[in-house]
Amino acid sequence: MKTTSTILMLLLCMGCAQTTTPPQESTTTQTETAPATTPSTRSSDPEMDKFIDDLMAKMTLEEKIGQLNLVSVGFDVTGPVVSENVDENIRKGNVGGVFNTFTPIAVRKLQDMAMNNTRLKIPLIFGYDVIHGHRTIFPIPLGLASSWDLNAIERSARIAAEEATADGLNWVFSPMVDIARDPRWGRISEGAGEDPWLGSRVGEAMVRGYQGEDMKANNTVMACVKHFALYGAAEAGRDYNTVDMSLQRMYNEYLPPYKAAIDAGAGSVMSSFNEINGVPATGNKWLMTDLLRKQWGFDGFVVTDYTAINEMIPHGVGNEAEVAALALKAGVDMDMVGELFLKELGPMVKSGKVTEEEINTACRRVLEAKYKLGLFQDPYRYINDERAKSTMMKKEYVDASRDIARRSMVLLKNEKNALPLKQSGSIALIGPLARNQRDLIGNWSGAGDWKKAVSVEQGIRNVVGNKVKINYAKGANLTDDAQMIRRLNAHGGDLELDKRSSEAMIREAVQVARKSDVIVAVVGESQGMTGEAASRADITLPGQQLALLKALKATGKPLVIVLMNGRPLALAWEHENANAILETWFAGTEAGNAIADVLYGNYNPSGKLTVTFPVEVGQVPIYYNAKNTGRPYGGDELDKYKSRYMDVPNEPLYPFGYGLSYTTFSYSKPQLSATTLQGTQPLEVRVDVRNTGNYDGEEVVQLYVQDVVGSITRPVKELKGFQKIALKKGESKTVTFRISADDLKFYNNELQYVNEPGEYRVYVGTNSRDVQAASFRLQ
Ligand code: BGC
Q1: What are the record keywords, sorted (predicted)?
Q2: Is the C-beta atom of 173 inside 6 A of ligand 1?
């Protein structure tokens, strides 16, 4: 039951005037409320505090404000393109950090400007969007997560840090931990998918990989958790759009990955573009101070997203001066590109609208980051030409990229063992992505060289040599929309419109198919159709690709679809008609080799979806950890008054956690060590998994929990554990999970983190749908 004070508090929190949630009294067991301490200017490192106290005592107000300014400096192959203004600003001490510049030569040039010209010689920090690899490119983050292999994910971040630091960088704008349930949103490709628990584990692994044990080491970088917060919940999947969300949903379903990455020690956080319940995130004091710093104890610094302060003007919350003050007072420390801090804060201190103390707080946090990175000891510690030469794209890194690319691929269908392919005979290799290189490395791969990416055609040749005859036809353009191609190419794409009619292209492909044993159709999206500002309302295959597939199917030859895309696509026809479908995302530098490894059985696929694939876009948002309704649909067609669509099923095409293998696995019923869980003694859930097929393989054994009756409604299932195990043909293993009372906690209506006594169900299985259940009670 909600108390009156609770309702009042909720109303307050959900309006513009968001306040810290006061801890409430609880009638439930094992309550935890976050300490509401005031963030202090003292850290746990007295030496650092003393160093920064001394430095700040010498700084003028202008110099302090300068530290809050982050500039983007373009880059070309011969060195940095430094605009007059940036050059002059760095020399004047008006710049705290630079991003979009790398290579030792370019970074040294800029660092020299700060070290040789500014009064206090405060080094610059160098950031970049290192998102899924730096020079050696790994699968896009949604693909990385689909490996369910936290060691491999951490290793990808480690390698990215090795290469980025060898390029002079010390700060990466990653991990992106935004939970996303809407495949229309192009940036769903940049995160780990829809699940808060898995997203948390992936975020932690990436922070560990980037920051290592010691941020001062010359091969570690500072991570930046983004986009704080709730950016993935943009209405209608349209980028930058409004977010309006209950606090319960926020705390239980969207915030956990940010918190996990921060608890893992991430040194910085990036504010998001969106508003949250009426207040833009970048000017949201509740978010940036009350939640982030007071409740979660974050002691790093907050940078805005690109011009996010300025964007509060069209959001409608103030003019330039007002939005700059809003951001600073909210708890933002660094202004990315917008330069409103630089322009507005000085005059506002004079007019008394902002205090120098507020600027000191932000400045201290930026300086602390530089200190933690060891830049005051040696501003050039990340700049080393020798290391740059010996580090980039080392064989070991490229091999790791191939391995994780294979692990990230998800086998969506494999009728009558259409895959793996025989290493003999002929294939019709068809599709706009079959010879493609540019798209394979995805977007946010600015330092990656797509010309080094291995195409599918090349990968097949590498893996099977001359044993298989390849008959190629393009078959279709990725899109026939010339306008769209212009737009994509203006932002790093490399699309060429084949001028032949789509009928002629399809005709050629059909001829090629007819003379081959099997069709391998490599279709999907161009990388620029996903990522930032790349929302799509229609999530089917773009252009004439579906028409191509239909014509290929009509030849009667076995049809294997290799998909490349950065979001769940609506694939009803493909699922119905293809013999096999392999989801490969944008798999990175080694994409072609990795795909060929899977197609020809050198690697048995083991990836699982971390996001639900709908049958149709009209089902969106669709996600596995949903709530029940009071009228759940039970399958009776004539039972009208149920929660269902008249024209499409409620069920997705592929559920969360889904993915096939070339072998099969059987699961025993889960056995519980007890039927009640009490105190601190964890409950053990054991399940025997057997490899019942003809290949050695890996399986992601998944554990879900349902809190059957709660003080608020609870999801029908929530992932609480998984283990990725390898089983030889015929082998079986007992997998043991431990559930503790802590794993059952959630935020109740008073936003207390509690577990509640009562009945719980445990589900274990190969995906979120195909599970077996057992029950226990929490006492
Ligand atoms: C994106 C961020 C990115 C930043 C810097 C923004 O447009 O939203 O994810 O880190 O640019 O490039």
Answers
A1: Glycosidase, Hydrolase, Signal
A2: yes
The residue ranges of the chain whose pLDDT is under 50 are 1-38, 76-82
Q: Is 532 in the pocket of ligand 1 (CB under 6 A)?
A: yes
* 452 and 543 belong to one structural domain: yes
pLDDT of residue 32: 46
Question: Are 501 and 603 found together in one domain?
Answer: yes
Q: Whose CA is nearest to atom 7 of ligand 1?
A: 306
Q: Within a domain: residue 424?
A: yes
CA distance 563 to 434: 10
Q: Are residues 381 and 421 in the same domain?
A: no
Residues designated as active site: 305
How far does residue 611's CA lie from ligand 1's centre (Å)? 23
Q: What is the pLDDT of residue 14?
A: 34
d(CA 746, CA 282): 27
Query: How many other CB atoms are found less than 10 A from the CB of residue 674?
Result: 12
Residue type, 512: V
Write the residue with the smallest CA distance to atom 11 of ligand 1. 306
Per-residue pLDDT at 738: 97
> What burial class does residue 213 get, using C-beta atoms within 10 Å of its C-beta: 0-12 exposed, 13-18 middle, 19+ buried?
exposed
534 and 386 inside one domain: no
**Which of 591, 610, 629 is a domain's end point?**
610
Judgement on whether residues 586 and 705 belong to the same structural domain of the protein: no
Give residue 542's pLDDT: 98
List CB contacts of 346: < 8 A, sequence separation 6 or more.
61, 62, 65
pLDDT at res. 25: 33
Asked whether residue 408 falls in the same domain as residue 386, the answer is no
Q: Rounded CA gap, 34 and 241, in Å?
A: 30
Q: Which atom of ligand 1 is nearest to the CA of 272?
A: 8
State which ligand 1 atom lies nearest to the alpha carbon of 226: 9
Does residue 207 lie within any of the structural domains? no
The pLDDT of residue 85 is 85
Give me 528's structure tokens.
């620029």
* C-alpha dist (Å) from residue 330 to 195, 245, 323, 361, 432: 29, 20, 10, 12, 48
Q: Is residue 191 part of a domain?
A: no
381 with 438, same domain: the answer is: no
Cα 306 to ligand 1 centroid, rounded to whole Å: 6
Determine how many CB atoms are found less than 10 A away from the CB of residue 723.
16
Shared-domain flag, residues 692 and 567: no
Q: How many A from CA of 173 to the centre of ligand 1?
A: 8
Q: Is 190 a pocket residue for ligand 1 (Cβ < 6 Å)? A: no
Q: Is 171 in the pocket of ligand 1 (CB under 6 A)?
A: no
| Whether the CB of 226 sits within 6 Å of ligand 1 | yes
Atom number in ligand 1 closest to CA 273: 8
- Convert the pLDDT of each residue in 63-108 to its tens digit: 999 999 999 997 543 334 445 589 999 999 999 999 999 999 999 9
Domain at 566, CATH number:
3.40.50.1700
CA-nearest residue for atom 6, ligand 1, is 306
Domain ranges, residue 735: 665-778
Residue nearest to atom 5 of ligand 1 (CA): 306
CA 176 – ligand 1 centroid, Å: 10
According to the 3-state scheme, what is the secondary structure of 510-555? Answer: HHHHHCCCEEEEEEECCHHHCCCCCCCCCCCCCCCHHHHHHHHHCC
Predicted confidence at residue 43, as pLDDT, reads 83
Does ligand 1 lie within 6 Å of residue 306's CB atom? Answer: yes
Number of domains in the chain: 3
At 39 the pLDDT is: 55
304 CA from centroid of ligand 1 (Å): 9
* Predicted local distance difference test score (pLDDT) of residue 54: 98
> What atom of ligand 1 comes closest to residue 224's alpha carbon?
10
Q: How far is CA 167 from the centre of its chain?
A: 23
In a domain, 638, yes or no: no
What is the share, in percent, of the chain residues with pLDDT greater than 70? 93
CA–centroid distance, 336 to ligand 1, in Å, is 9
Q: Assign residue 723 the CATH number of its domain.
A: 2.60.40.10
